[in-house]
């Protein structure tokens, strides 16, 4: 007896027809390319009190409750996120505080742009205090700005308005749509 069985021609035709349907609808299953919002948490630290140097010189004192670093697109700098607030002091060459920055939430995008949100308070070397809900700090252009309400208190006057723009020392600035109070000379 022959162990090989022959299939009828009709069965072969059905198998051939089914296999052609199976191959014609193939879909390649690929994920979308990585986008910046798809970045993964690279580092999570809590209770951070540290000093950060710039070109080997101690320049910043940073105190945060939580510090998250997210890796973004390969080849780009990561994003730092401080979701539970940030306190930062910038130090001069003699390690004196020349700028104090505090906010409820902060992001450092690509090591170039600080985005400060929530109750943002900045005090410059002259003792002027700036209060706002949003502030951007471009580290490459060495300037700060916002497009929201800002209240500035100096020893001589109080000023408030919108569309604030300043140098990064917060010593030369202008405010659009401003109003304020200050003593007038008689």
Q: How would you portray this structure in words?
A:
The protein has one helix at 9-24; strands at 40-54, 57-71, 79-82, 86-91, 97-103, 105-109, 113-124, 129-138, 143-146, 150-153, 158-167, 173-181. With 186 residues, it is mainly β. It has a single domain (49-181), classed as Lipopolysaccharide (LPS) transport protein A like domain (lipopolysaccharide transport protein A fold, Sandwich), CATH 2.60.450.10. Strands 1, 2, 3, 4, 5, 6, 7, 8, 9, 10, 11 and 12 form a 12-stranded antiparallel sheet that branches. Strand 6 and strand 7 (113-124) form a beta hairpin. The longest helix has 16 residues, at 9-24. It is elongated and about 115 Å long. The model has no long low-confidence stretch (mean pLDDT 85).
Keyword list:
186 residues, lipopolysaccharide transport protein A fold, twelve-stranded antiparallel sheet, elongated
User: Roughly how many Å is the radius of gyration?
Assistant: 30 Å
Q: Give the CATH topology.
A: lipopolysaccharide transport protein A fold
| Terminal CA distance | 126 Å
Number of separate strands: 12
Q: Give the number of helices.
A: 1
Q: Helix- and strand-based class?
A: mainly beta
What is the CATH homologous superfamily assignment? Lipopolysaccharide (LPS) transport protein A like domain
**Helix and strand succession?**
HEEEEEEEEEEEE
């Amino acid at each position: 007896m022959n162990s090989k069985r022959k299939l009828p021609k009709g069965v072969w035709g059905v198998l051939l027809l089914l296999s052609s349907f199976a191959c014609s609808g193939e879909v390649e299953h690929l994920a979308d390319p990585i986008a910046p919002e798809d970045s993964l948490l690279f580092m999570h630290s809590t209770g951070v009190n540290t000093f950060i140097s710039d070109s080997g010189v101690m320049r910043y004192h940073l105190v945060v409750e939580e510090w998250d670093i997210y890796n973004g697109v390969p080849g780009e700098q990561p994003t730092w996120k401080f979701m539970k607030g940030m306190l930062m002091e910038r130090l001069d060459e003699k390690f004196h505080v020349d700028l104090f920055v505090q906010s409820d939430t902060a992001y450092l995008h690509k090591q170039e742009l600080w985005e400060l949100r929530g109750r943002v308070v900045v005090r410059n070397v002259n003792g002027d205090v700036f209060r706002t809900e949003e502030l951007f700090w471009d580290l490459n252009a060495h300037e700060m700005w916002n497009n929201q309400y800002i209240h500035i208190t100096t020893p001589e006057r109080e000023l408030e308005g919108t569309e604030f723009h300043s140098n990064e020392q917060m010593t030369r600035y202008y405010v659009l749509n401003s109003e304020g109070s200050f003593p007038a000379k008689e």
